[in-house]
Give the backbone structure.
Amino acid sequence: MKVLVCGGAGYIGSNMTAMLAREGHHPIVYDNLSKGHKAAIADKELVVGDLSDFDLLVKTLEKYEIEAVMHFAAFIEVGESVAEPLRYYKNNFCATHNLLTAMETAGVRKFIFSSTAAVYGIPEIFPITENSPTKPINPYGQTKLAVEDMCHHQSITGKLNFAALRYFNACGAGNNGTLGEDHRPESHLIPLIIQAAMGKREDIKIFGTDYPTPDGTCVRDYIHIEDLCRAHLLALKQLDNKREIICNLGNEKGHSVRDVIETVKRISGKDFKVTETDKRPGDPPVLTASAKKAKDELGWRVEKPDLEEIIETAWKWHSENPNGYPD
Ligand code: UFG
């Protein structure tokens, strides 16, 4: 299938692009390279463009006879979204509206959207199912939920079949360990801890130690990038005859910030400074998934459920690429 991968040069997008190619699909990357890395897509076809460029989008969809669109091009930092909500609404919501309009114009019906656990806000019952109330507590989660709603309404017209996949915490390196996490600036826990272990930053900061969790630090559900991407392929197969798929993608296990730090220390064999600081705005105490729906409806199976094994892939990638991607 010819698939347009918006944000295909980013962390999740590049892993998805590589997996699509490995599985015999034809991915075309559409990326403005504001966050992504050209080196992460190797020899894959690339259209450098912005999602705000309606004409280029329509032209690209038509030229490559695109059959499905996967959309990973979004801003992803909770704290930043609290500080700069308008940027988030513009980039995450308005740009997706433009993309869906271009798809309607070009007659492309299949759409896979990167949604997030942040749509649930501060859940009260665990594990979180897709029926849990959606009450985002930050603009990031709200913009993702608004896109899900827009897709839902568009799908009712019969012009869109979509999957909104609600990611928990994607991590690790995929494509045989060659595609890792390199955000600039880095804000994600695992790469930051690894940088501390490599001596590239003076410490790792724990954002809040009095959360209502067993060790007082936030608990998250860490899912390996390859497992996450594989669910997209399964969803893609079902979009021929399903109008709407909404699934959590998580490992169904919670790990605290302290657990993750200790795991990196064990794997790397390095000790480093850990500093306890204030909470980060917009962080829910616990996010752990029920992935039953993805398992039942998509036939999804998690192949790398073990945090040690996941972090080993990340540690290896960072050790082999101490300066990240070369661009
Ligand atoms: N954290 C620290 N210190 C740091 C960085 C993070 O203590 O230096 C903590 C955070 O407070 C949070 C946890 O580590 O409790 C994980 O933080 P990340 O920034 O790695 O990830 P988030 O849980 O904030 O968000 C990620 C993605 C989102 C996605 C969300 C879903 O960035 O896009 O997972 O759970 F929506």
Notes: The mean pLDDT is 97.
